[in-house]
Amino acid sequence: MPFTFERIGAAPPADDARQYMARMRDGVRLATDVYLPADAERQGDDATFPAVLVRLPYDKNSRYVYFDRIARLFTARGYAVVVQDVRGKFRSGGSTVPFLHETQDGYEAIDWIVHQAWSDGRVGMFGDSYYGFTQWAAVAAQHPALRAIVPRVTAADFNTIWQPEGQSAPVWLEGVEYFAHHWVDNDSYEYRIDRSGRPVIEQYEEAFRAIGARSLWFDLLAPRQAGLSTQPGLHPFDARPVPVLHCVGWFDNIVTAHMRDYMELASRPGWDAVQYLWAGAVDHENYRLAQAPVSDEDDHNTNEDALARMLPDYANPAIDFFDVFLKGVRPVSALSKVTWELGHAGWRTSAAWPPADATARTFWLTGSPGAGGPLPGALLADAPGEDEQSAQWTHDPDAPVPSLVDDSFAYLHSYPDLAPVAARDDVLVFSAPVLTEPLDLAGPVGVDLHVTGTAPEFDVFAKVVDLGPDGRAHQIARGQVSVRADGTADEIHLDLGHTGYRLRPGHRIALIVAGSDHPLFLPTPGTGENPWTALTAKPSTQTLHTGGTCPSRLTVTVAPTTGI
Predict the structure, then answer these.
(1) Which are the contacts of 49, defined by CB distance < 8 A and separation ≥ 6?
(2) Inter-helix orientation angle 304-322/67-75, to 10°
(3) pLDDT in tens, 382-435
(4) Cα 116 off chain centre by
(5) Quick one: which H or E segment has residue 43?
(6) C-alpha torsion sign, points 323, 326, 331, 336
(7) Are the C-beta atoms of 116 and 107 separated by less than 8 Å?
(8) Do the Cβ atoms of 382 and 363 come closer than 8 Å?
């Protein structure tokens, strides 16, 4: 049966956008739309405006990014909006290679703006994910007109998403596959891959053969990660500081990387004074915990009314930030350093993150022989066990633990109940006692485990969940690490990112530990072979050690409960 795919080309341009092909220094022209305030013509030829620049690879005119609608919110507040297809994507010229041209192209896009008659010489940048990255690339270019940025759900160096510094990580198959869909040529390609077939890499080779082209960046990541930097020149953190509003989602699948960026800059002299944080109980696609699982009526991806309701909450924090640092019409004192949502309990502000009154709390994994599912399993206790105990799970690459979602970027859309996963015999679970009062999480979450394994290399996945009185379990935070086995119970650390979340009375905090998470992650084959090219697989056994000299633990950050 022939391989089938859908080619997605550029959508029709917006009626109210002025279209240009902005010339870069090497002669390549980038497709650029300009939206001006509605009364620009009435103000006359001398009217000038600060500009908000967006540089993205997802078709500036597509329904997916809805910039014709977003632009109206910005222009209504007196901003020009400039939306540009990056090099090699959709209507823009040049080769289709992510990351490497964004610093220079970002500089020249800003320079193009300031030479337009309507420009007042001040530029800010805005956008999500890859078009958050293009903001950091422009910061590295250090154009003097760039006054502020609002990167959302992103990272300054994308390598830190799938390969955190100092750690080995499982292959985030969903993340690597992104390049095989969006970075082949000017268009994007939709197709289904059998992620369980072996060798896995052959499934993508079949797609490239059918398309007649391939993705350079996918080839750098699979089957062996080449490690080419996504910031090949000056790192933006070493550039001239600019005001930054970091917009993160507690349920975003790359929140861990984004919060590392924020925490590093908040501790850097020069940068610290101009770092601001907006953190909502949302995922990468801006679905909200308050509406999860999302109904058709609330799905802004398909419902126009839902999109109209969502967009002001999406854009207004950025516009308010630009009013301070781009327009200068509001004082700096009008902004809180940190505006954050406590899941299930509304919005808060604080002078720092984590809040100054937040403290670390440790839950110790105890009674591990009883950690086999279903929930609640073994005990998360306030003190470690005196004697060492252990529990085992088997990782079978041919029967991996299911992810329950195919698209973790829209995790809250389906918001799966993890209780069925916790009931599997290849999963370990631990739960704290039922809460009699709220437990407010506000800050970093981490897990430290002592694990041995029979395979040359194995993966460990940890998910902190909210176990409700109805028996349903919903994810709060997650992390994963790849371990090279040497037979000793060395402590491994899993960074589960940050969260703001209220566990309500009657609920429990619980921990799920497993050896796979498929199809989001590529299961290790258990043979020591490269998981992309392995033809065979072998089950393996992992042993979790707790208590005594191996005190495995979950550490959360807890804020005093307010606003009950």
Answers:
(1) 36, 37, 40, 78, 79, 80, 118, 119, 120
(2) 40
(3) 999 999 999 999 999 999 999 999 999 999 999 999 999 999 999 999 999 999
(4) 35
(5) helix 40-43
(6) positive
(7) no
(8) yes
